[in-house]
Each structure stands twice: as structure tokens, then as C-alpha cells.
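Figure 3 (text version): C-alpha cells given as input.
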């Protein structure tokens, strides 16, 4: 029997945050604690409490990854805001102040407990900050499926990494109004083969829930069943290949009822991996949609 083991997120160490962000970013964030309101861009506004919240979000991600790598937990879900995947090395962006998953991945590698990390991002928006953090780093595979073209404008299929990191970025751009079956096919046909080829020692998920059909920003048609399905496939992958995780870190999601249902659906799969995927495979009907991506990445 698997049980929830809740713990409070600690504040991230500056040394861990600096593995991803410039010193100036931390100084600018620290100054927001003495101001009623600070605007970094039209979408990204901090209040006096945002600096501590951002440190807790990143600290929770680092703590969850650390506990999973030590074997204290089989998997984890970090329920924290603000989100992080748009935050870049030198700037907060898109509701995000610190890049929680990037910091956690860097901390895991620096600890010596993880040699190769995969970050899977299913938020409806592309995680530009996470991609650029590891674009030339062969130790980190960044996989994103997202609506495209859409904010923030990055995430084309041709963005595959550079230098030593060429081939360790996999973008799956999707047109709007895609449903559960398309996401399931993307996992079966492209994502799981890529994970298998990369052979990570740790799997972190940028778990955004704004592709839910009720979300006011996303324009997709996912149900909470899609998030159960995706989580279950990742749990199965980790167990079959002795990969630590998955560690899910909350990103976007702005329809509170859809967000709540979908988070519960994911947590249920982390706790009780008995979910059965839809009978039969949808790959045959949708396979052509992903053939170009498979060819690009030699899958």
C-alpha cells in the first residue's frame, strides 16, 4: 500500500538557484520583498511576498528530487506556485520568477546522485527557460509537447539542442484543440521511445494543467483522464527502467475545477498505479502526425 507523505517546502539555497540564474536575478527578486508591486514584464508581477514564495517553490522541487534520489520516496508531486518554466537565466518571465525544475535538475546533477536527467514538460506553453538552460548540455533531455504557435513563441520542432547537446531537446508542437488521444499517441510514438534511448537516471515533469478543456488560456481539449494516462505511462517507464521518479512539479493551470481534478488524477497514479489506459492503441490512427518528428530524432 502506497501512502502520501506530505512535507513543507524549504526555501531554496542561493547556491542552488545560482546554478541556473544570474546573481542579478536573485538581487532583483530580493528587492521585490520591500515593494508593494514590481513589474518584470506585462505578465510577470511580484508582490512583497513573491520572493519567499518563489524560493519555496524552487526549494520544494529540490527537496522532492533529493528525497526521491535518496530512496526516501518513490515519486513526488510538488504543489507550489509561482510556476517556473518560462524563467530564463537572466530574467523572470511569463508568471515565473525562478525556474523550479531547472534548479532541481542542476542540483541533482551537482549532488552526484543523477548523471542524466529528463525534464518532460506537458504544460500547454513551451518552457523556453528550461530549454535554454540545457540547450547545449548532453546530460539533460528536455521534452516538451505544447500548443504552437503560441506564447512564448519558442518550441519549434527544429529546436533540437546545439553543440554537445544536439539531439537532447525534443519539441512536439501541436495545433490548438488537440484531445486526449493525440497526447496519448505522442507519448507512445515519440516520447517513450526518446526516453528509452536517452536512459535517464531521474525524471522530472513540468506538470502544467492548462491544456485542460476548461482552461481559459490554453485552447486545448484534454480531460483529467489524459493526465492520469500520461502520469501512469511515466510511472510505468520509471519502474521498468529503474529511473528515479517521476517528480511532478506544478506549472500552469487556471481553471480551478479542471486543475483540481487533473492534479488528483495524477496523484492517484503516483499512489495507486492501477489505471488502465484506453483499450487498444490510438497510434495507428494518428501515427502520421508524428512521423516527421520521429525521423528528425531517428526514433
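Below: residues designed for each position.
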Amino acid at each position: 500500500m502506497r501512502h502520501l507523505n506530505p512535507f513543507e517546502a524549504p526555501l531554496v539555497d542561493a547556491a542552488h538557484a545560482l546554478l541556473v540564474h544570474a546573481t542579478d536575478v536573485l538581487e532583483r527578486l530580493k528587492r521585490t520583498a520591500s515593494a508593494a508591486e514590481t513589474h518584470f514584464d506585462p505578465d510577470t508581477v511580484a508582490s512583497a511576498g513573491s520572493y519567499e514564495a518563489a524560493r519555496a517553490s524552487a526549494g520544494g522541487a529540490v527537496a522532492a528530487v533529493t528525497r526521491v534520489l535518496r530512496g526516501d520516496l518513490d515519486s513526488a508531486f510538488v504543489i507550489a506556485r509561482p510556476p517556473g518554466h518560462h524563467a530564463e537565466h537572466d530574467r523572470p518571465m511569463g508568471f515565473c520568477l525562478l525556474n523550479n525544475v531547472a534548479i532541481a535538475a542542476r542540483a541533482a546533477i551537482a549532488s552526484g546522485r543523477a548523471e542524466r536527467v529528463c525534464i518532460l514538460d506537458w504544460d500547454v506553453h513551451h518552457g523556453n527557460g528550461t530549454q535554454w538552460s540545457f540547450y547545449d548540455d548532453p546530460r539533460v533531455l528536455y521534452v516538451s509537447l505544447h500548443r504552437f504557435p503560441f506564447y512564448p513563441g519558442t518550441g519549434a520542432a527544429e529546436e533540437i539542442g546545439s553543440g554537445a547537446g544536439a539531439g537532447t531537446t525534443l519539441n512536439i508542437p501541436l495545433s490548438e484543440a488537440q484531445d486526449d488521444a493525440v497526447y496519448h499517441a505522442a507519448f507512445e510514438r515519440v516520447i517513450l521511445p526518446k526516453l528509452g534511448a536517452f536512459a535517464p537516471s531521474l525524471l522530472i515533469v513540468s506538470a502544467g494543467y492548462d491544456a485542460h478543456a476548461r482552461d481559459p488560456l490554453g485552447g486545448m481539449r484534454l480531460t483529467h483522464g489524459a493526465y492520469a494516462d500520461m502520469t501512469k505511462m511515466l510511472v510505468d517507464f520509471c519502474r521498468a527502467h529503474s529511473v528515479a521518479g517521476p517528480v511532478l512539479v506544478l506549472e500552469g493551470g487556471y481553471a480551478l475545477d479542471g486543475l483540481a481534478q487533473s492534479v488528483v488524477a495524477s496523484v492517484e497514479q503516483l499512489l495507486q498505479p492501477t489505471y488502465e489506459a484506453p483499450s487498444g492503441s490510438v497510434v495507428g490512427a494518428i501515427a502520421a502526425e508524428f512521423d516527421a518528428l520521429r525521423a528528425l530524432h531517428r526514433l
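The mean pLDDT is 93.
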